[in-house]
Amino acid sequence: MGRIKSQTLWSSAYTYAGAILGFVITAILFPRFLTGSEIGVLSLLVSYSMIFAQLGTLGFTSATVRYFPYFRSEKHHNGFLSMLLITGVTGAILVTVLFFILLPYLRSSNLENSPLFAHFLLLIVPLAVFQLFFFLFDVYCSALFDSTIGTLLKEFVQRVFILISLLMYLLGAVQFEGFTFLYVASICAVTIILIMYLTVRGQFVLKPPDLSYSRPYLKGMAGVSFFGLLNGFSNFASLRIDAIMVNEFFDTSAVGIYTTTFYFGILVALPSRALYKIASPMIAEALKTSDFRALRDIYTKSCMTQFITACFLFMGLWINIDNIFLLLPDEFKAGKYVILYIGLANVIKMGSGVSEGLIAYSKWYKVITWFMLAFLGATVLSNLALIPLMGIDGAALASLIAVSMYSLLRFWFVRIKFHLQPYSLKYLWVVFALILSLGICSVMPTLPNMPFDLAIRSALGAGVFVPVIYFSKASQEINDMILNFTTRIFRKNQ
What we know:
The protein is an all-alpha fold. It has helices spanning 2-33, 36-56, 60-71, 80-110, 115-119, 124-143, 148-170, 176-200, 211-249, 252-266, 270-288, 292-319, 321-326, 336-351, 355-360, 365-390, 392-417, 426-442, 450-472, 476-493. The chain is built from 20 helices and no strands.
């Protein structure tokens, strides 16, 4: 747990630094200097490319986490990197072929309602290929117990490049078309940097796979990769299909409003990214050695700490919802309840802890695939039903419904197969703290100065939420963090 704690702190620091930068870019600069349609184009390029990229990994990310412990060695890890590269190149060829098969349909379906997106369709290919290799090399770094570099590059460095590209656009150095190419290049660049990092570390050494060593594992790796492919595709498709379906029903302008407000909702889930990436190889190691005490410890603590964190962040988000929309042009107010539904979906998601990892890296790994396919099916069907009725709010509500169903399935399976049940009556104290803070802040009058209102309202919300959590002793880990923080504050003031 010490290693998890250390890397979680660094990953969380990079994640939140990136979140602040992402907030400036996505919530302030993009809406002010780009049209909703232009924002929608950028969002759709990323959405399509990530789905293609996940297909291109051929599920080898799951095989890496599960089987790398068996290949680990002092120098070349028995040629594991070469296996990873062969998989990546094969996947890149396959998704490129698939894209050009689908290109006539993609172009014809977007020419009328989304002509700007149709103009940039070919950029999906380099985006998909570079992101494909980033996924593979990032999970390789995590398997080497170095998960912070991927977080730093993806969450922070990539956004720095995007900000520089945007500043060039604002200064008139490039037009929107040039900015779009720079935007794509910014996403691709972090993959190159990650390869350079591995090279400097001496971990990008190509050695032919040791077939005599790897042969006993190949069948298992193929099976894990197959189900990992289905699982990963379902996961990414579920996360990105809403923007694509909004575009199908409406246009890129609606996509721009949806994805901009969607961004606020996913801020609630930021801590889970760092924890899940770091905990995954630990879970794999614990399963390998049948260390069920470690599994119980990781699962139980992850559920409570993430739930408390998610509720705190959601509280801060929703009590300041009116202040948020003062930062955005009027057209984005249509996304108010997108923030609500996506925020709640992420509270539920974080409250389920690392249950997905427990299943995905166990002998029952195939089950998570069927759960993910059910998740994707529920997402698509609920989107089809709710988007025509509720517009972009319907897409967000569909996500909430699908996430709730998926989280319940994971909890049920872990309870049955692992005999682990992390929840207790202490969770009611967390819900009480959330409701109480929301209720008290809702009756606070709006102050005329927005920054002052935001600061006072946030302080009030935290002043209600944090003491309830601390004195209820819902989480020893959270209490330790609160105590350490207050101790440092008092020391500075002495």
